[in-house]
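seq as requested:
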Amino acid sequence: MPKPGAWALNHARAFFFSLGKLYRTPLASAMTVAVIGIALALPAGLYVVLSNLEQLAGGWDRGVQITLYLKSGTSDQAMTTLAEQLQSDPRIARVKTVTPAQGLAELSASAGFGDALQALPSNPLPAVVIVYPHLQGRQTAQIRNLREALAARPEVADAQLNLVWVERLYAVVTIAQRAVWVVGGMLGLAVLLVVGNTIRLDILNRSQEIEVAKLIGATNAFIRRPFLYGGFWLGLLGGLLALLLLTVALLLLAGPVNHLAGLYDSRYTLSGLDFDDALRLLGLSILFGLGGSWLAVGRHLRAIEPS
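struct tokens:
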């Protein structure tokens, strides 16, 4: 069993030897790293698009509201009392009240025929309480249950919920999530194959060197070590390139996105990967590199034996 110092020295040699191998074959190494980087940047870019879509959805679904039309003859005091009771419900974020007089004034201003409305013998509009529920994730079923509970109150004549468009938006987001996983899985498999093929060619090119090493007593673990570190470097460099490509793409898109948001009087800004997501991408890239090299070494190293 090797001493700890000798074991660490062997790993250090393999670590830097594998890095030097990439340096000595710059064109082939650059092409492999470019393929890995592009393959990882595509699902990472889809993930960023999905994250921004969910961020937009989080802003849009705050417009979900339950409109309570109170029964005819409900006084303003009764409406205010109902609003105070609803405000204490933990499922409700905030409540807005609209008296019949306020509703008639808003209708007159927006419809453009205020004279005709003024000619009415009485105000036909009911008192309205607008309820904005708490939204934590995709709680469409809970919001529907809240609507039914509010509709059952004795003061309420009708309760309307504008939730269909939010459910459609969530359905689109769900499809996009599945697409990211499918595309990411396929491209992750492609990275494994690219790294595995690169390591396989390196093993075949060094087959005679490997035979000599086995003749003088080198173990499979000793021979395998530099190839595994080679996969590590390919994965790490490919992940860094993917982050660079993603950053450049976001910089190119940030200006047009900000301009479009400004046209809609929005302060929305395009967001990219945070620090934790970037670390996860690098970690996955390294795992793909190590996995591809491990599969290639395990399969081809056993076939090379000194004759």
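The CA atoms of residues 159 and 295 lie 61 Å apart.
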